[in-house]
């Protein structure tokens, strides 16, 4: 009996072991040899793996169970290859990169469903046409790399694709006409930020499941296919920054699920289509085209709209009263069009509006005082270059909490003192009819960073109170006035802000530039210094060479004497040096004329002498004429004794 019992026990244990082994084998079938070989070939083409994404990939382990980024089906066939460069640590993100090419051998992973190599940044070479053999592929994610060449025509075989992301690469050429013919399951297509050209493929109308289409920042030309309106599921459409021409198809107005429509910076013409069915649209950017006609009143149907930008077109007629129904608007910009009539008082209903830019149109005054109701959210108001005939800044603006007020070219004759108690960061009242002294109360504007009073009739010295500006200044534009006196007050302004831009040209300033200008705290990040057309004299300070962020230096048409400081060669990134029409002597420093980023160099009409130093930039002869002692290229050769 004991023997029989023991035998039964042994048989039971054998059965348990067999079943356990069978279940284990079914659950973790070893990686198929074809797939293993293909993956190892891919790894061999990677020249640098900075984050060791492929470290676990080796011959001695099972690719289905031990290799990171690989998943297999129950038969040991690879169905997912995901080795992307997306950092999962939001608090301490790290830069994941991978150098090399995509091996054509990946085309042998015939059961692959997901190929994710996005965000690796440095994958280069062409996209292998062999990937078109991956008939089970649902996601092909290769965006944010350095892949070049064309999009393979073989992709038309990928009939199960849901997502095709190839954006932010260096892809070029035309997109194959029939590539989308059988991609009815595709929901996301991203080809943005490449160098793709030619027409938008006509087969795009087959993408009936498409929700997101991004073709922006390429060189696509031709027209937008009328059949774009067939893509009823589309909620994101971005074709901005291309060379697309023709009209915006009326069928675009049928895309009732659209939340984003960006067609800016193209060559589109004709009218803006009806918005009556775009009832969930949140962002519409049509700026920088050649659009004509009126802004459709039907735009009021897009009540969720938050961003509406129609800048730089040829739109005409009046601003629709119905704009006031778009109470979710955050930004409304229609600058540089041909709009006429008055600004609708209904805009005061836009309680969430933060920026209103209607500059450079033909709008007439008065500006509705109802806009004062926008005092909580509105921070930027730009009505510049409209024939508003304001005379003075409307008093209701004093009730607002604006950060930026732009009223250039609006007919201003005077500035009210209540501006001194505002919180304005930017004040632009240029190109008006302002005269007299620059108001000393400007020094009381506690947040002022940018002041532009250029192209007016101000005269006399700069008020000494300006030195007391609480935070200093970042941008100061006084050009084309009749200011007199020295520059010491301007350069002495100090505070939290540092100057990045100073333009004092076309005035009557006199005296010398402070020799210590390059050491002044207010000038440490200066990028532009324009002092042209004044009556300044003395030497050009050597300390200018310490302004290492300077890009533009214009001192022409003054009375400067002495030599060109060799120290200017320390301004590594400068692009423009204009010193013409002065009384400078000596030679041209070789280090200055050979600054690597220098595009404009003009020392004409001085008293310079000697041989023009050899230089690589093709500066014209006109940059050196009027110096009788200068010679050599591009002027005539120096005379030999």
UniProtKB/TrEMBL annotation:
Compartment(s) of residence: Membrane
Signal peptide: 1-25
Domain of life of the organism encoding this protein: Eukaryota
The keyword Manganese is annotated on this UniProt entry: no
Main location (coarse class): membrane
InterPro entries, A to Z: Leu-rich_rpt, Leu-rich_rpt_typical-subtyp, LRR-RLK, LRR_dom_sf, LRR_N_plant-typ
UniProt keywords, alphabetically: Glycoprotein, Leucine-rich repeat, Membrane, Repeat, Signal, Transmembrane, Transmembrane helix
All copies of domain Leucine-rich repeat-containing N-terminal plant-type, residue ranges: 34-73
GO CC aspect terms: membrane
Pfam families: LRR_1, LRR_8, LRRNT_2
Cross-referenced PANTHER family: OS06G0179800 PROTEIN, RECEPTOR KINASE-LIKE PROTEIN XA21
Protein name as annotated: Leucine-rich repeat-containing N-terminal plant-type domain-containing protein
Species name: Papaver somniferum
